[in-house]
Amino acid sequence: MPWQVSLIIIACILYTVAVWWERIRGGLQKKIVIAFAAAFTCDLIATTAMRILSRSGKANLDFHALTGYTALAIMFVHFIFAVIAIWRSGGWAMRFHRTSVYAWLFWLLPFFTGAFLKHR
């Protein structure tokens, strides 16, 4: 298995743990935000490496790539949202809590399309 695929799997594990840890706990902790950051970093490195090492060297905007880049952007916004929610009081944490699973579910779409369409 290429190291980039291993890194995407690690990103999936970290992102899943972070989302559900926050969900079950009912709130954010610094440890959870660190897990979000680690998941995003793993995904960014793996995605960048796969893009560089692609055979064509060109951006291939098929369904998997389009959802993958979108999911990476959503993951970044989700991480920034977590940072804001942990530092600010008020409704930020509750809004984060309500939207977190949706960001994670969207992120899973390119994860599984990559697994089933690209590597069969």
Oligomer: single chain
Q: Please describe the biggest sheet, giving its number of strands, its sense, and whether it closes into a barrel.
A: none
Provide the gyration radius in Å.
Answer: 15 Å
Helix % is over 70%
Helix tally equals 4
Mean pLDDT: 89
Number of beta-strand segments: 0
Question: Strand percentage, roughly?
Answer: under 5%
Structural class: mainly alpha
Q: Helix and strand string, N-terminal first?
A: HHHH
How far is it from the N-terminal to the C-terminal residue, by CA?
13 Å
| Uncertain residue ranges | none
Number of domains: 1
Folded structure, characterized:
By secondary structure, this protein is mainly alpha-helical. It has one domain (3-118). It is built from four helices and no strands. It has helices at residues 3-25, 30-53, 63-87, 92-118. α1 (3-25) packs antiparallel against α2, α1 runs antiparallel to α4 (92-118) and α2 packs antiparallel against α3.
